[in-house]
Specification:
It contains no helices and eleven strands. By secondary structure, the protein is an all-beta fold. The strands form two sheets. Strands 2, 4, 5, 6, 9, 10 and 11 form a seven-stranded mixed sheet that branches. The protein has a four-stranded antiparallel sheet with strand order 1-3-8-7, with no helix packed on it.
């Protein structure tokens, strides 16, 4: 079992930055991938990024629309994944979820991720 606890929620103005953190506890293996989804009101959950726990930064994978503004990173010593968000826009307002999948696959939707955090709210004001 894996438990995930997100932090870093907040209200930020357009153009601002925010960093989300997610600490994982339980059995985490190098083959796992950690990542982030988000869900805006009335919309489906949207994949943001994921990264392997294998200490290889080249394993980062992003949805095209957010690449360049959002950056995922992992501190393996702390089993913590981060999401640095820059140039925030009102359309980034959503609840952000930390996720873990137990295989090394990159592609796949919500069903590919076995573990989910409780979510943390990000609000971007115009």
């Amino acid at each position: 079992q894996v438990q995930l606890v997100e932090s870093g929620a907040g209200l930020v103005q357009t153009g601002g930055s925010l960093r989300l953190s997610c600490a994982a506890s339980g059995r985490i293996y190098a083959s796992y991938r950690m990542g982030w989804f988000r869900q805006a009101p009335g919309k489906e959950r949207e994949f943001i990024a994921s990264m392997s726990m294998s200490r290889n930064p080249s394993t980062a994978y992003y949805t095209d629309s957010l690449k360049g503004r959002f950056t995922i990173s992992i501190d393996n010593a702390k089993n913590t994944v981060y999401l640095q968000m820059n140039g925030l826009k009102p359309e980034d307002t959503a609840k952000y979820y930390c996720v873990v999948r137990t295989n090394g696959e990159v592609y796949g939707g919500v069903d590919a991720y076995a573990y989910w955090g409780q979510g943390t709210q990000v609000t971007v004001s115009s």
